[in-house]
Amino acid sequence: MRAIGAGSVGATLYASLYLAVAAQQFTRYAHPAGMDLTMAGIVPRDAIRILVRALWPVLLTTNATLLAFYAATGFILGWFAARFWAAVAGAQGRALPRWLELTLVAASLLAVAALAFATVVVRYPFLYDHLLNAEGGLPRRVQAFLTRWAAPGALEASLWALIGVLALPTLVRLALRRPVAGAVALAGALGLVGWHPSARAIGLNEGPNVVLIFLESARSDFFSINGHPELTSPRLDRLVAKGGVTFTDAWAHANSTVASVVTVMTSAYAYRHGMRSMFHGDEFARPALRRLPALLHDEGFATRVVTDWDGDVTYLNERVLPGFDRYDVAEFGMISYVKQIYSQHFLFLALTDNRLGHRAFSTFYRAGGGYAPAGSDLYYRARIEQNLAELGRTRRFFLTLFFADPHFNYRCGYPYYGRFTDPDYEGPNKYQAMSNPTVDAVSGREREREARQIRGLYAGCVNELDDNIGFVADTLRRLGLDRRTLLVVTGDHGERLPDRWSFRYGRNGAWLDPDQFHVPLVFIHPPVPVAQPVVAATVRHIDIMPTILELLGLPVPPDLDGTSLVPLIRGATADLHLDVFGETGFQWVPAKPPYLSYPPMTEVISFRRDEGGALLPRYFLDRSCLARMNLARHRFIRRGRYELTYRPTVDGAEVALYDWQTDPALTRNLAARRPEVAAELTGRLFRWALGDPELTVRQGWLAARDPDALARCAPPQSG
Fold first, then answer.
1. Are 200 and 478 in contact (CB under 8 A)?
2. Same domain, 282 and 152
3. What mean pLDDT, rounded, does the chain reach?
4. Which residues are within 8 A (CB) of 179 and not within 5 positions of it... i.e. 6 or more apart?
5. Which of 91, 394, 510, 674 is the most buried (most CB within 10 A)?
């Protein structure tokens, strides 16, 4: 009975801990280290009402599950601790007073909580940045000391060792009284923790297979395989050296995820496939276009897509990208945001971030990302491993993966946040980049210090991407599939990082920096001879699909916008002399005058519920704003050594010409000095842009076909 009483004390103590964490979570969540991105700032206040009404079951079940976990864990550990201290006292031939027993039980549970907190603080320091580093003073120094000198593996081992010591008397008693039950329970737990797919794929797999990996916010020049001075991508370096090719001048056509992924899968520019931002629903998709997964499915490939938190149902579905046999993807973002509160509860995270916990609480770990860790790599890797083992028993397969580690704000766990940063750095960007990329808040020496830190955080996330790519390659080899599998790696778009010209970082629909479009593109084990491992010729996202089809020996549809890169891989030619076209996406921060803009997100995006009151898993754009949004896109053409940019203004456009070979930062406008080049590239850009049926030319500028459409969505300042 005394153990039951101690368990009740433990349950009360940990339930109180849950409530304390929940209180700070609701007041500070999504506001770490100066982050100005609360839910009310993302969506309109009337949308908050819709979200609460639609998602209250998720809110309720999420918090009830976490509270029950804390209470149950507290009861069990309280029970264990009472038995442990009773055994210690009994070994000395005495009994503990009740008050001392409960004090020791509480101290034991607080020690467990402290080790759990330290484990999470070191493994995912950005989760509690707002309570420690951002506060400065002693809290900052404590977190800096832990992350510099402590290893999460050692802390986690200490945590489980302490729990094991507390549980030892109870387990010994169970083993002596019920040995069979104890052995079965132990074997079951070890089996769940240590389970993994069979060593080799046994079945009919003959190949060729394809694994296509998208990398979120992957900037080409931050990979050592493409020339970065630090060793950020050693696994890719070795894979290419053993039988692959990297294209160092590869380009996306949009600085947004959805548009880029669908472009790769269709070899069509965004104005053809219709999915021009994450807010474009499936009604914008053009079903007549053939998708790569559908083509391969029709050729007998087993097809699957498996993503972490950043690949969700809004575009990875059978209406936008049909042809996959299985869509193992994330839920709608707003549902995931609610479930992500698990990551703020350090005791839950420390005890469940393992194979057993991932299986028991997969609904939470699948939602990881955004303001939580970018999912647990261990959890996502287990899903990839399982899918590859199953696909290895098919004749041939096409698997699409998505790793989102470098997503803004560059929150990557141990040891990546410290690999390329200065350990002596003290400041707000210690573990994550602050969410104020449009503000040049610092200058001079301080500015360069902050810029180096942010670039170092991003480089660490690239290194985490590289390790994940290496895991996929290792799994293919372990399953005996590597030599029959073409591995294709590319970024969905690039990323703007602070440099000597600007402190801006992240991305925005009003930015046209080349860094936001320059992406890695690597082919590993192509089934043709590789002439040289590094190709400097210009290539594009639209060229990936026809290249994969030709490498597989399949017919390439004639209506694709791209061309096959096989001649470059084989060395049949040194350059295809391709034009690169690109456009910006949604203006997360409206462009400032004189550039054309539209109202902020809170006024043009909405949510809806179905007849049963459930939240529809997608966003809804104000269709009256589509024409202005489309015209407001900044566009560019890159041809030879020149790049021409076209930025719409309220009364026309700003056109600039740059020689990117001598001016890679695009700081010197040559339009006046080279008018013939500017005219030629402007004509090429217009011919490309006019493939969009919603655009025309009026008074020498691109214009919406409906001239009245612009007035229907003018921002207040344009009024």
1. yes
2. no
3. 89
4. none
5. 510
On whether residue 653 sits in a domain, the answer given is yes
What is the C-alpha to C-alpha distance for residues 564 and 560, in angstroms, rounded to an integer?
10
Answer yes or no: do 276 and 387 share one domain. Answer: yes
DSSP 8-state code for residue 541: G
Taking alpha carbons only, the member of 314, 311, 313, 355 closest to residue 212 is: 311
How far apart CA 17 and CA 586 sit, in angstroms, is: 41
Does the model's pTM come out above 0.90? yes
**Whose CA is closest to 310, among 222, 228, 213?**
213
Residue 304, both tokens: 């699957």
Per-residue model confidence (pLDDT) at position 221? 97
Tell me which residue range forms the domain holding 555.
209-309+374-401+459-576
Closest alpha carbon to 670 in 661, 4, 261: 661
- Please state at what angle helix 137-149 crosses helix 98-123, rounded to 10 degrees: 70
- Report yes or no: 499 and 665 within 8 Å, Cβ to Cβ: yes
* Cα 277 from Cα 266, distance rounded (Å): 16
Q: How far is Cα 27 from Cα 39, in angstroms, rounded to an integer?
A: 11
Instruction: Name the residue with tokens 């955004």.
Output: 370
Question: Which residue do the tokens 């639609």 mark?
Answer: 54
Q: Which of 284, 287, 281 is nearest to 321 (CA)?
A: 287
- What does the alpha-carbon distance between residue 205 and residue 480 come to, in Å, rounded to a whole number? 10
DSSP string for residues in 78-125: HHHHHHHHHHHHHHTT----HHHHHHHHHHHHHHHHHHHHHHHHHHSG
177 and 279, same domain (yes or no): no
How many CB atoms are located within 10 Å of the residue 210 CB?
Answer: 22
